[in-house]
Amino acid sequence: LETYDRLQKLTVSSAVLGRALAITDAQVRKDLAYFGQFGYPGVGYRVSELIVAIKRILGTDKTWSAALVGVGNMGRALIQYRGFARRGFRVAAAFDSDDAKIGEVVGHRKIQPLKELESTVRRRKIQLGIITVPAEAAQEIADKLVAAGVRGLLNFAPVQIDVRAGVSVVAVDLAIQLEQLCFQVG
Length: 186
Ligand code: ATP
Description:
The protein is an alpha/beta fold and 186 residues long. Helix content is 42%, strand content 22%. The chain is built from 9 helices and 10 strands. Adenosine-5'-triphosphate is lined by residues 69-75, 96-98, 101, 114, 132-134, 137, 141.
């Protein structure tokens, strides 16, 4: 939708959206109808209106801030990824356990020691955590983030992490995704 908006298209049909998403137009209409009435008969959807509505549904109409833990190669890339800001996400603080990295500036953020995690998360009301530590440290870091008040974790460590009810985890395992791709290609 943002692409259509940039191209100054005012309206879009469920058929066009469906093609872009590789689903049927009926599925697009059904999914959106679940949340309300957004389309106009004979017109389709108004692009800017639908962007606002979907952001509201997803909760991305406000800025979310995240604390990132583990400023290795993956962490560094994510801190500097501009795509987050464009979608309303801010990596507000970054932490590492390695003394050699603490104090270093990455993407305008100074890497902080782990002992400052809890107070920083609380003071700055950080809602999300991004975990980019090695697998063996991931659970401990998840526990620290949750104890500090974080309610959602994006986990890049290739390991399952357990959290209490009320906290959400989304796992991103790039190696598994490559494995899936190999299976499909091979
Ligand atoms: P490096 O830059 O150290 O070579 P890397 O990209 O190879 O990093 P990993 O070994 O996966 O990455 O580690 C990622 C980062 O997580 C490193 O910066 C490491 O210091 C940090 N780290 C490891 N254990 C912990 C922990 N328990 N708490 C916080 N940070 C940790």
